[in-house]
Amino acid sequence: MKRIAMFTMIMFSIPALAVVVDRVEQFDTDKDGKVSLEEYSSKCGIKALFRLADKDKDGFLNNYEMRAGREYLFKKCEK
Fold first, then answer.
1. SS3 (DSSP) at 66
2. Residue 64's beta-bridge partner residues?
3. How far apart are CA 69 and CA 63, in angstroms?
4. Cα separation of 2 and 9, whole Å?
5. pLDDT tens column, 28-75
6. How is residue 63 annotated by DSSP?
7. Contact 16/67 with Cβ under 8 angstroms?
8. First-last CA distance in the chain
């Protein structure tokens, strides 16, 4: 039973992670694995949302921060 639950959990989490990775790749123009304010604002322009999503205040968005802020980060971005 534990194996079925683990398999189900993995299968449902993979698509969600793929969306986040695609977002990082979409914004990460210098291919360093993280998104800078300049990279984000070139497509979205709303710097306050970037700062809100940057939870560790390092000046970059990683996969976790982009996933956590997806509700508000990408609403005004270019498609």
1. helix
2. none
3. 10
4. 11
5. 999 999 999 999 998 887 889 999 999 999 999 998 999 899 888 888
6. H
7. yes
8. 42
Distance CA 34, CA 63 (A): 8
Report residue 65 as tokens: 């921060």
* Type of residue at 38: E
3-class secondary-structure state, position 5: helix
Q: pTM for the complete prediction?
A: 0.68
For 9, the token pair is 């959990």
pLDDT for residue 23 is more than 70: yes
DSSP bridge pairs for 60: 36
DSSP state of 62: -
Residue 60: both structure tokens together:
């970059």
